């Protein structure tokens, strides 16, 4: 998967989660990029390397000054969206992230500070984890997806960013799914393509809501 394709898919989910939880969209996208290799290594749709039960595979940890390979247990999800939502819930449920000041940095739209808080709270063992997050955000201008504060204290996404995401990814994806729905030869395939088409429409309207644009 190309880097921009990964961003285009994850950004609407990350923006939606920022509206719900306050966790910066740029941080969510950058963490997903690092932990999954831009979507290339996400077994069980686990984009964020969250440990748990459901599957086991080899991963890399930094221990005693060295990177080592270990076998770990990890959570599984039905979809990437489920992984994004659980990532938010994981950060909220673990008090060490609040204690680190992570949510305060997110509220201030300070992705640099938020990245440092994640490392200090032990999200990853890599001593350069925060630096890598910041580099990814800056190289891909992911902070453009972070919701801006407006006068009424309601979160707002920049309308230009929202339109770019809708027109370059969601509308073409909706059209492709609609074409597949119309061409489907059996009810199961038709139902699957309808669900996919409706999901793209929901994402587009979520972005319109976040940016103050009218729904379609």
Task: Give a brief rundown of this model.
The protein has helices at 3-21, 25-36, 80-93, 95-99, 102-107, 111-120, 129-139, 159-183, 187-211; strands at 51-63, 66-74, 148-149, 155-156.
Could you characterize the architecture of this molecule?
It is a single chain. This protein has 216 residues and is an alpha+beta fold. It folds into two domains: 144 residues, Lysozyme, CATH 1.10.530; 53 residues. 59% of the residues lie in helices and 12% in strands. Helix 1 packs across helix 2, helix 1 crosses helix 8 and helix 6 runs antiparallel to helix 7.
The secondary-structure element order is HHEEHHHHHEEHH
CATH class descriptor name of the largest domain: Mainly Alpha
SS element count, helices: 9
The main β sheet shows up as:
2 strands, antiparallel
Average predicted confidence as pLDDT:
88
- Helix % is 55-70%
Write the layout of secondary structure elements.
Blueprint: H1 3-21, H2 25-36, E1 51-63, E2 66-74, H3 80-93, H4 95-99, H5 102-107, H6 111-120, H7 129-139, E3 148-149, E4 155-156, H8 159-183, H9 187-211
Antiparallel strand pairs: 1-2, 3-4
Helix pairs in contact: 1-2, 1-3, 1-8, 1-9, 2-7, 6-7, 8-9
List keywords for this structure.
Lysozyme; single chain; two-stranded antiparallel ribbon; 4 strands; two-stranded antiparallel sheet; 9 helices; 2 domains; alpha+beta; 216 residues
């Amino acid at each position: 998967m190309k880097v921009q394709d990964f961003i285009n898919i994850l950004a609407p989910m990350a923006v939606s989660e920022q509206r719900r939880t306050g966790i910066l969209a740029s941080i969510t996208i950058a963490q997903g990029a690092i932990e999954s290799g831009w979507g290339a290594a996400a077994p069980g749709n686990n984009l964020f390397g969250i440990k748990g039960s459901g599957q086991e595979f080899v991963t890399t940890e930094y221990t005693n000054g060295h990177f080592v390979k270990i076998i770990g247990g990890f959570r599984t999800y039905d979809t990437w969206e489920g992984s994004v939502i659980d990532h938010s819930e994981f950060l909220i449920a673990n008090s060490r992230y609040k204690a680190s000041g992570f949510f305060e940095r997110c509220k201030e739209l300070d992705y640099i500070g938020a990245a440092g808080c994640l490392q200090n709270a032990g999200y990853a063992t890599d001593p350069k984890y925060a630096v890598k997050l910041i580099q990814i955000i800056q190289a891909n201008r992911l902070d453009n997806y972070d919701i801006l504060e407006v006068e009424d204290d309601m979160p707002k996404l920049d309308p230009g960013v929202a339109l770019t995401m809708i027109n370059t990814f969601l509308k073409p994806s909706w059209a492709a799914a609609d074409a597949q729905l119309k061409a489907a030869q059996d009810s199961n395939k038709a139902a699957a393509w309808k669900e996919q088409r409706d999901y793209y429409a929901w994402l587009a309207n979520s972005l319109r809501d976040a940016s103050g644009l009218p729904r379609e």
